[in-house]
Structures are given as structure tokens and as C-alpha cells.
């Protein structure tokens, strides 16, 4: 396991519902290091670039509308094995399938409103932080 960085984003529903502190707290308590943070209203073209791997999916237009619907909190987190570990802390994409104890398992119901994004590989971590 190596020191790496991942991109974590609190999505508009998470910001709107007042879950920013809760999400940050879980990564802090785990022991990861916050290396960057900003509140940001994502423009459409950047949202499409961020989710470019999903461009062919039927839900893509709704996903872009949702992610650009309000401010998000953009963060980079550093630590040993942080990319995979963050995905475990976040839980499964569908919150109804996410284990209790995970962010999505504890705090969300709908796939289209699943509170938080986490990079799925160290390469995508670098790309998404950029
Ligand atoms: P994850 O966010 O767990 O990495 P993903 O990369 O497959 O999941 O998809 C990105 C986001 O797109 C996901 O957080 C919510 C949305 N999404 C994925 N699958 C969906 C589906 N079947 N219906 C609606 N939205 C979906
Ligand atoms: Mg993903």
C-alpha cells in the first residue's frame, strides 16, 4: 500500500442537506489527511468531462443536471491506500445496497442522490483533482 491521493466531492444534495461536516468528519476520523478543499458550482462542460466514462448511459443527462444544480464541495484527501479505502467508507453506488456504517448506507436512499463521489483509481484520482 502506498501514499496516494483521491478526489472526494460532496454532491449538491449533500451540501443542501447540511452533510458537509458529517462527511468530512468520517474521513478525518479514519485518519486521512485533507490536502485541498473548495466550494464550487460546477459548469456543465466540466461536469461532462468529470463523468465522461458514463456519457453513453441513459441517466447521463439527469446526472449532469443534478451535479450542476447547486454548489459541491471539492476535496483532495491523502493517505495510504486512500483511493480504495474511501470507496469503502462511501459504500455502494445504490444507497439501498450500501452497508450500514458507510456514508451512503447511513445517509442516502436514491442512486441519483447519493451524497458523495470518490475516485475509483489512483489515475482517476489525479485526473479528477486536476
Ligand atoms: P460511483 O459514484 O459509485 O463511482 P458510478 O461511477 O458508476 O458510481 O456512477 C456515477 C454516478 O452516476 C453515481 O454516483 C450515480 C449515477 N448513477 C450511476 N448509475 C446510475 C443508475 N443506474 N441510475 C441513475 N444514476 C446512476
Ligand atoms: Mg464512479
UniProtKB/TrEMBL annotation:
<keyword id="KW-0418">Kinase</keyword>
<feature type="binding site">
    <location>
        <position position="104"/>
    </location>
    <ligand>
        <name>ATP</name>
    </ligand>
</feature>
<dbReference type="GO" id="GO:0006228">
    <property type="term" value="P:UTP biosynthetic process"/>
</dbReference>
<dbReference type="GO" id="GO:0006241">
    <property type="term" value="P:CTP biosynthetic process"/>
</dbReference>
<dbReference type="GO" id="GO:0004550">
    <property type="term" value="F:nucleoside diphosphate kinase activity"/>
</dbReference>
<dbReference type="GO" id="GO:0006183">
    <property type="term" value="P:GTP biosynthetic process"/>
</dbReference>
<comment type="function">
    <text>Major role in the synthesis of nucleoside triphosphates other than ATP. The ATP gamma phosphate is transferred to the NDP beta phosphate via a ping-pong mechanism, using a phosphorylated active-site intermediate.</text>
</comment>
<comment type="similarity">
    <text>Belongs to the NDK family.</text>
</comment>
<dbReference type="GO" id="GO:0005524">
    <property type="term" value="F:ATP binding"/>
</dbReference>
<feature type="binding site">
    <location>
        <position position="114"/>
    </location>
    <ligand>
        <name>ATP</name>
    </ligand>
</feature>
<feature type="binding site">
    <location>
        <position position="87"/>
    </location>
    <ligand>
        <name>ATP</name>
    </ligand>
</feature>
<keyword id="KW-0547">Nucleotide-binding</keyword>
<feature type="domain" description="Nucleoside diphosphate kinase-like">
    <location>
        <begin position="3"/>
        <end position="130"/>
    </location>
</feature>
<feature type="binding site">
    <location>
        <position position="59"/>
    </location>
    <ligand>
        <name>ATP</name>
    </ligand>
</feature>
<keyword id="KW-0808">Transferase</keyword>
<keyword id="KW-0067">ATP-binding</keyword>
<protein>
    <recommendedName>
        <fullName>Nucleoside diphosphate kinase</fullName>
        <ecNumber>2.7.4.6</ecNumber>
    </recommendedName>
</protein>
<feature type="binding site">
    <location>
        <position position="93"/>
    </location>
    <ligand>
        <name>ATP</name>
    </ligand>
</feature>
<feature type="active site" description="Pros-phosphohistidine intermediate">
    <location>
        <position position="117"/>
    </location>
</feature>
<feature type="binding site">
    <location>
        <position position="11"/>
    </location>
    <ligand>
        <name>ATP</name>
    </ligand>
</feature>
<dbReference type="GO" id="GO:0042542">
    <property type="term" value="P:response to hydrogen peroxide"/>
</dbReference>
